[in-house]
Each structure stands twice: as structure tokens, then as C-alpha cells.
Design a protein that fits this description.
The complex is a heterodimer of chains A (about 425) and B (about 240). Helix content of chain A is about 55%, strand content about 20%. With about 425 residues, chain A is α+β, with helices and mostly antiparallel strands. Chain A is elongated and about 105 Å long. Chain B has about 240 residues and is α/β, with parallel strands linked by helices. Chain B has a single domain, classed as P-loop containing nucleotide triphosphate hydrolases (Rossmann fold). Helices cover about 35% and strands about 30% of the residues of chain B. Chain B is built from 9 helices and 10 strands. Chain B is globular. The chains are: A alpha+beta (about 425), B alpha/beta (about 240). At the A-B interface, helix 1, helix 10, helix 11 and helix 13 of A face helix 3 and helix 4 of B.
Chain lengths: ~425, ~240
């Protein structure tokens, strides 16, 4: 059939549907809500998992992070002022990882120092991390001003530090901190650089209220000045902890090797540690788990939406069957005037597809509106992936064809003589 | 067309039988019917209900196939044709006019006239002009955009006649075409048929009214699935032609 013929059939189908406006409208509602729920639910689900994934990605997807964890059964302060709690990752762990693990790009030790940071009268208690130059590469952070810590800083036990954005802003609100002296605990340190704020991978917008408050100092310098024993002051009581390393960041050469290194780390730590005073964070695995959760979520949502589309499709089929019966005579006339079976099939199929595609179109419109409303009223992030409306629309058209075939076939297989006689 | 020019018989039935199965019983709706309708002839078919005239009309109209025997429409043997080929014959060689007009309600006058052309594999390029001219001729020039429900019975039947002519059919079949009309309108429509006949159209007109049948050149009476009698009154038709 020619294009012109289809255009005419479309027009004529549309007109037939407009003869029963209310019926057509009600019929499309099933598909409309099915389609819009697919889009809206996917957008909300996508938005929810996006946040989690971003957090994980900030840890570095090619890293394996070993962390010290204070064992649960260890007595805390308990009034004993002189007791030292010893736990966590050991220097030996660090050395073993560095010397024996294959496919490792960098191994970064991190120790957290408890101390006050002060410039003249301004003071605060940020996270003070004693680490090595490779920290920058391993975490993917960027410099804002000046330079990062160097190996030479460590060797010469230099009193230098790098400030995080917020710390720099707090301590030096009006001028560049580079070259200035700050006091960390009892010692003076010279600021050699500042870190750029953390960038959000998706939209490059720093999260409001996120405090990138760290001060970084050379690992060796920290060991020299602060030792390994930290004194924490907790509401009047003192608590002493001895921790070699708070964190070991292992940067792996390729994503494939991540799980290998993670397994090796587990194996190594479980042998070397009596208590479970460590944890292993594998961002890639977390990411995989988040993906899996999202996938399950999508399957559930997809099923619900699928069922509603199915119900919508059945509704359309029901109405089309009634329509075919109602229009038996018209079918007879058309057959008598030369319509072939396929003409009749096409005619009714076009009407069904018009119903479902109409529902699909309005459903897409509604489905795109709901996330906007949700975002505005419930303060939830939603993401409409371009594939969702396209797929939803395609499925609705498919529903029309599938559920239109039977009524159309029924119409076409009528005996023309019988159909003409139908009152 | 030239190849069909030499075929003088538009309709040829040879010992046509049509048997229906009604439950356990076999019904002989047509029981060995043979006749031929020549080009330009105006036949009326009469008979009581159950006489087989509807079945005969369905067979001639290619809506039904004979169980036995042969039926040739303009030289084409229909018994071996499949559903699509029969549809092609209907859209190309036949024009139908029904008692209850049978226009399609959601289409306007022009579109209704055009319906037979819609289903042709290669519709003529001048289809719409042809339809407009026919509407004009039927006195419906100012009604072209109207829906059937906005027309009177006589006007609807005129649309149906225009529709039956749009594909330049070999044969026009009218089934009780004036049955639903008042006598004045019916006469107008019958005059129209006379006109068409005078133009050389081949017409089969099914009716149960004697005065309607009188206008035809041949009157075929059916009874119990067989031809009861065939009256040829050619001279009347020729007089009509002379008069018009």
C-alpha cells in the first residue's frame, strides 16, 4: 500500500475513534498510566541510586581501601587514663602490600592525627592526615594553589602542610595561605599548597555544606612529631590509642585486578590480625552491589509497569472487540466494495495503535512531569534517562499492535455476506 | 480494456450450484442455474425470499463462490480465485448498490464515493475528479463534505450510486435499491438506472416489485434455487433509449 493510503487510513482511523470520544479517552488511560509510571518510577529510582554511586565513585573505583576499625569488644575509656588501646593496620601490613602485591600502582599509608590547628586566634579541629605524595593520585584530588607534599618533604622531615579548601578559607579568609605558618598541635607548619574542592563527577557542582576540611602533612614528619599514640579527649576523660596506620589506600593498575587485590588483602589481614580490627572497602564492589540493587529495583518497577501496560492492552483489546462487532456492517460494506482481508486488518490495527500510541504520548508527557513535581515537592533527586521515554513509548505502540492483532483478525475473517446482513 | 471489448457476456453462469450446510441438513440455494448477461443489458431478478435470488446475487457479486459449476465475470473464471483475487474483482469490475444505502457513517460524501478506489492496487490518478463529477451528476455537488447522516434517503442512495460508478465497473448490482424510498424518490432513482442503462451500463437489479422489474430488458424469476422463467423484453429498453 502506498504512503498516501496509510495517511488516509490514519486520518480515517482517527475519525472513527473521535466518533466515540469518551470511550477512546477512557481506553487510552490504561496505557497512559502504564507509560507514565514506567518513566516516573525509573526516574525516581535512577535519582536515588545516583547519589549512592557518586559517593562510592569518590573513593576511587580502582582503589582498595584498608581501614583500621576499633574492635567492638575493646574496652573504651572506662575511667582508666593510662591505658593504651592498640589496634588497627600495622606498618608491617603496609610494607607487605607495597613489597609483595602485584599490579599495584601505589600504596598510600594514611595516619590520622588528633591535634588542634591554629592561626593566631582562629582554631579548629580538622582531619589531619599524615600521608605520602601518592595520596593525591590515589584519591584523584586536584591542587588548587601551590604544590602537594613531596618525597623530599618526608625525607627531610619538613614541617610543611597542604590545606583542604574549607580549612584554607577558614584560617585565611582574605589572603592566600601559601607560605603562611599554621600551628598544628605544638608545632609550626608552612602551608605549601591547597586542594581544589572535590568535584562531583556528574554535574561538577560542589555539594552545599560539604566540609572538605583536611590538613595533609608528610607521613614521616608526623611520625617524628606526633608518634603513634594519639590522645583523644572525650568529655573530660582521656583515651589513648596506638594505631600504626588508619588507612592504606591501594591503587590498582586496572579494574580487573581490583577484586584480586581485595582478596589478597583479606587473606593477608586475616592471617596477620587476631582480632577483626580492620575493614576492607572495595569501591568497585560497592559499586557493583549498588548496580545490582538498582537492577533489582528496575526489574521490580519494570514488572509493575509491565503489568499495568498489560492491563491497559487488555482494555484496548476489549474495546476493539466491541468496536469490531459494532462495525460488522461497515466491514461487510468495505469487503463488498473490494477491501481485502489485509485492508481490514490494517484499518483496525491502525485504530488500536492510535489508541495505544495516543496513550503512550500523553503517558510520556505525564511521566516527564511527575519527576519534576516530585523533585520540587519531595526534595528528591530524579533522573530521566533518555532511553526511558523512548522505550516506554515504543512499548506502548507494541502493546497496541499485539493487542490489536486479534480484534483486527476477527474483523478480517468475517464472511462479507454475513457481515452485510448484520443489523 | 480492449481485450475485454470482444467479450460480449459480462456474466456467464454454467450450471451453478451453491449448497449450504445448515446443521445436519444440506440446503440447495442454487440448483443448477445457467444464463448469460450480455454487455449493456438491464436485468431484473425477482423471486420470493428463499428463492435463491440473494445467493445468486452474492455469487454474481463475487461475495460467494459456487459449490459446483462455473461463473465467469467479464471472462474471468471465479471458482478458482482466492479471497484476495475476488476482492480485486469486486473493486475493479463491480459496483454495488444496497437497499439500506450502506454508506460508511464516519466518511463524508466524497470519501464514500471514493471507497472502491481505495482498495484498488493501482487507483486511477483522476479518482477524485471522477468522484466529484459523479457527485455533481447525482445533484450532490453542494453536499460533498456532508456526512451520510446529514442526507435524506434519496440523497444517500445517490451517493451509493455514484460510489458504484466510480470504478467504471463492468456490472452494477442493485439489491432492492428503491426498497427504502418513497415512491417519488424511488422513481427518480429508477430513472437514473434507465439513464445508466441507456449509456450502455450492464445492470442487475434485484427487486420484488413488478413495476420496477418491468423497466428491465430481461426479467429473471427465481424459485427454489432454479430459474422459474426468463422474460426478454428488449424492445422496451430500446424504446427507452430512443426516448432519452
Amino acid at each position: 500500500m502506498k504512503r498516501q493510503t496509510y495517511a488516509r487510513m490514519l486520518r480515517s482511523g482517527f475519525r472513527s475513534l473521535m466518533l466515540h470520544r469518551l470511550r477512546s479517552l477512557l481506553t487510552t488511560l490504561g496505557v497512559l498510566f502504564g507509560t507514565s509510571s514506567v518513566i516516573a518510577m525509573l526516574a525516581i529510582g535512577e535519582g536515588a541510586s545516583f547519589e549512592a554511586q557518586e559517593q562510592i565513585k569518590l573513593l576511587g573505583s580502582q582503589n582498595v581501601i584498608l581501614r583500621s576499625v576499633k574492635p567492638a569488644d575493646e574496652p573504651t575509656s572506662g575511667g582508666q587514663t593510662s591505658r593504651v588501646v592498640r589496634y588497627g593496620l600495622l606498618d608491617a601490613d603496609y610494607e607487605r602490600v607495597r613489597d609483595t602485591f602485584p599490579a599495584v600502582v601505589h600504596v598510600v599509608p594514611v595516619r590520622k592525627i588528633e591535634a588542634e590547628v591554629r592561626v593566631l586566634t582562629r582554631s579548629l579541629n580538622p582531619q589531619i592526615l599524615a600521608t605520602q605524595p601518592s595520596y593525591l593520585a590515589a584519591t584523584g584530588r586536584l591542587m588548587w594553589e601551590g604544590r602537594f607534599l613531596t618525597a623530599e618533604d618526608g625525607r627531610s622531615l619538613s614541617n610543611v602542610c597542604v590545606l583542604g579548601t574549607d580549612v584554607a578559607h577558614y584560617l585565611f579568609p582574605l589572603r592566600s595561605p601559601i607560605g603562611e605558618r599554621i600551628k598544628i598541635g605544638p608545632e609550626y607548619f608552612i602551608v605549601v599548597g591547597t586542594l581544589a574542592p572535590r568535584l562531583r563527577a556528574a554535574d561538577d557542582q560542589p555539594e552545599v555544606g560539604e566540609f572538605t576540611g583536611e590538613v595533609l602533612i608528610p607521613f614521616e614528619t608526623a611520625t617524628n612529631w606526633f608518634g603513634r599514640i594519639q590522645v583523644k579527649l572525650r568529655s573530660g576523660s582521656r583515651e589513648m590509642e596506638e594505631v600504626d596506620l588508619h588507612e592504606i589506600i591501594i591503587g590498582v593498575a586496572s579494574g580487573d585486578a581490583v577484586s584480586l587485590i581485595a582478596d589478597a588483602s583479606r587473606e593477608m589481614l586475616s592471617r596477620g590480625h587476631q582480632k577483626r580490627d580492620y575493614e576492607i572497602v572495595v569501591p568497585l564492589e560497592l559499586l557493583a552491589r549498588a548496580e545490582e540493587t538498582k537492577r533489582i529495583f528496575n526489574v521490580v518497577l519494570g514488572s509493575i509497569a509491565g503489568i499495568s501496560l498489560l492491563v491497559g492492552g487488555i482494555g484496548i483489546m476489549n474495546v476493539m472487540l466491541a468496536t469490531v462487532t459494532e462495525r460488522t456492517r461497515e466491514i461487510g460494506i468495505r469487503r463488498a466494495l473490494g477491501a481485502k482481508k489485509r485492508h481490514i486488518i490494517t484499518q483496525f490495527l491502525i485504530e488500536t495503535v492510535l489508541l495505544s500510541v495516543g496513550g503512550g504520548l500523553f503517558g510520556v508527557a505525564l511521566g516527564l512531569t511527575i519527576p519534576i513535581i516530585v523533585e520540587a515537592s519531595a526534595d528528591m533527586k530524579t533522573i530521566v534517562t533518555p532511553i526511558a521515554p523512548i522505550a516506554a513509548f515504543g512499548i506502548s505502540a507494541g502493546v497496541g499492535i499485539i493487542f490489536g492483532i486479534y480484534p483486527a483478525w476477527r474483523a478480517a475473517s468475517m464472511d462479507p455476506v454475513e457481515a452485510l446482513r448484520h443489523e | 480494456m480492449s481485450s475485454q471489448e470482444h467479450i460480449q457476456n459480462v456474466v456467464e453462469l454454467m450450471n451453478v450450484r451453491r449448497t449450504y450446510r445448515m446443521g445436519e441438513e444440506l440446503v440447495q440455494a442454487l440448483d443448477g442455474v445457467s444464463f448469460a448477461i450480455g454487455r449493456g443489458e438491464y436485468w431484473s431478478v425477482m423471486g420470493a425470499s428463499g428463492s435463491g435470488k440473494s445467493t445468486l446475487l452474492n455469487v454474481i457479486g463475487c461475495l460467494d463462490r459456487p459449490t459446483e459449476g462455473d461463473y465467469l465475470l467479464a471472462g474471468t473464471k471465479t471458482s478458482s480465485l482466492d479471497d484476495d483475487e475476488l476482492s480485486d474483482l469486486r473493486s475493479q469490475k463491480l459496483g454495488f448498490i444496497f437497499q439500506s444505502y450502506n454508506l460508511i457513517p464516519q466518511l463524508d460524501v466524497l470519501e464514500n464515493i471514493l471507497v472502491p478506489l481505495y482498495y484498488q492496487d493501482e487507483p486511477p490518478a483522476d479518482g477524485e475528479e471522477r468522484a466529484r463529477a459523479l457527485a455533481e451528476r447525482m445533484g450532490l455537488g453542494d453536499r460533498i463534505g456532508h456526512r451520510p447522516t446529514e442526507l435524506s434517503g434519496g440523497q444517500q442512495q445517490r451517493v451509493a450510486i455514484a460510489r458504484s460508478l466510480v470504478n467504471n465497473p463492468e456490472l452494477i448490482m442493485a439489491d432492492e435499491a428503491t426498497g427504502n424510498l418513497d415512491s417519488q424518490t424511488a422513481n427518480e432513482i429508477l430513472d437514473l438506472f434507465d439513464e445508466l442503462s441507456a449509456e450502455g451500463k450492464t445492470i442487475v437489479f434485484v427487486t420484488h416489485e413488478a413495476h420496477v422489474a418491468e423497466r428491465a430488458s430481461h426479467i429473471l424469476r427465481m424459485k427454489d434455487g432454479q430459474i422459474e422463467e426468463l422474460i426478454v423484453q428488449r424492445e422496451i429498453v430500446q424504446r427507452e433509449i430512443v426516448r432519452s
